[in-house]
């Protein structure tokens, strides 16, 4: 089963998507399941995991509704108010939503101190207690704080989004390689090979530029903790879905069949507990 482990849907409004700057103008429109379905079919993708784009419980419920109507959506990573003392009660209410697989808060916009906040960490303990995972969205300089966060929650399954967003101008930066390898020593952390093209300075990328980044994360995490994701529609500012898909396929071509299957779907299916 081929799985795209990371994409988004949204109904665009300027107020709710202030992060979409002028240079990302192509994203200033609606993106719905009907837009993605033919793209997935062309790439022979069997299922997906849709991830929150707004810090709103309303969006989480909208994504779950999409998953009820579209069989290709196998899992939802939503947003919930993790710092709310009543978060265990809310997660209890969401138990019947079988396609809710994990949660995410956009930590890349938070100071490092936020990752140590008692209320936030209490929310993560509730996430673990309810059998959900956590998508870790940080930037490369935040990796040391992310490592400390993971160490506080050895029983919570984490997945690192977008390789921690290193700024890509050439060879993989030494500091990023070091911190990524240290994070990968924690067996409860997986990694998504996604969101890479939009971190390339100038958005002009080649396979030769990005292959070394794939090699770094493959070496650090291994195929059984690495998963393919498109970051559609955000990726569209730098690449068509089909081009990114072909590039990832080229990255795994020389691997053993079980490793290829792991990266292209089996890792995501296991991590997010997806059903066919």
Summarize the SSE layout with pairings.
Layout: E1 3-7, H1 33-42, E2 47-51, H2 57-69, E3 73-78, H3 87-93, E4 100-103, H4 118-129, E5 133-136, H5 143-152, E6 158-160, H6 174-184, E7 189-193, H7 207-221, E8 226-228, H8 241-252, H9 257-271
Parallel strand pairs: 1-2, 2-3, 3-4, 4-5, 5-6, 6-7, 7-8
Helix pairs in contact: 5-6, 6-7
State the gist of this model.
By secondary structure, the protein is of the alpha/beta class. Helix content is 38%, strand content 13%. Strands 1-2-3-4-5-6-7-8 form an eight-stranded parallel beta sheet.
What does this structure look like?
The protein is an alpha/beta fold. The chain has a single domain (3-271), classed as Metal-dependent hydrolases (TIM Barrel), CATH 3.20.20. It has nine helices and eight strands. An eight-stranded parallel β-sheet has the order 1-2-3-4-5-6-7-8. α3 links the parallel β3 and β4 (100-103). α5 (143-152) packs parallel to α6 (174-184). The longest helix has 15 residues, at 207-221.
Shape: globular
Give the H and E element order: EHEHEHEHEHEHEHEHH
E-strand count = 8
End-to-end separation in angstroms reads 8 Å
Assigned CATH architecture: Alpha-Beta Barrel
- pLDDT below 50 for ≥5 consecutive residues: which ranges? none
Give the biggest sheet: 8 strands, parallel
Q: Helix coverage percent of residues? A: 25-40%
Keywords:
single chain; 276 residues; alpha/beta; TIM Barrel; 8-stranded parallel β-sheet; 9 helices; 8 strands; globular
